[in-house]
Amino acid sequence: MSRRYTIVEPSFAAAANMNLIEIKGASGKVLEVLRWWWRPTDNTLAPAQVLYTRCRLLPATVTDATGGVNSSPSIMANDGGDTAAGFTAITKGTAGASTSGTARLYDSAGSHSYNGYDQTIEEGVTVKSGEAFVFEIVGSVTTTINITVGAEVEEIG
What b-and-e string marks burial along 10-24, b requiring 16 or more CB atoms within 10 Å of the CB? Predict the structure, then answer.
């Protein structure tokens, strides 16, 4: 049986080389990360810039992101009757997550700060126990921009 969850981290200041979301696989379950996004949340237009983001699967031994606020975001069941998620997620890490294995790149894009970024894939990125999916900013953020980030995940098992 599978369950769908939405992860959301409300408005915060984006920073260079920041892990926006790290989704960690759960024991005895398989995850499919189906969608990830960031959107600007400032009340006025921030100076124009492009944020370069990428998504990677970190296999083998994963060292979690640290630094920054590194909060635990809200993980909501899309069906209110579903149980709590078995997986965990952390956000806003300024020292990125790493792996002892070879990371696999699934998505890489530059997006204008006015538009944000939203990626949906049909099959999903499979995350097993001991692995992590990371959606991160790569490089600099030239001027302060506040964003919200999120992901949709299907948990199987």
Answer: eebebbeebbbbbbb
pTM tops 0.85, yes or no? yes
Give the amino acid at 26: A
Mean pLDDT of 70-91: 86
Rounded Cα distance between 94 and 68, Å, is 5
Q: Which amino acid is at 2?
A: S
**Strands (DSSP E) found in the chain:** 2-13, 19-24, 30-40, 50-58, 62-63, 74-77, 88-93, 98-99, 104-112, 117-127, 132-137, 146-156
Task: Give the burial class of 43: count Cβ atoms within 10 A of its Cβ; 0-12 exposed, 13-18 middle, 19 or more buried.
Answer: exposed
The total of other beta-carbon atoms located within 10 Å of residue 74's CB is: 14
pLDDT cut 70: percent of the chain above it? 99
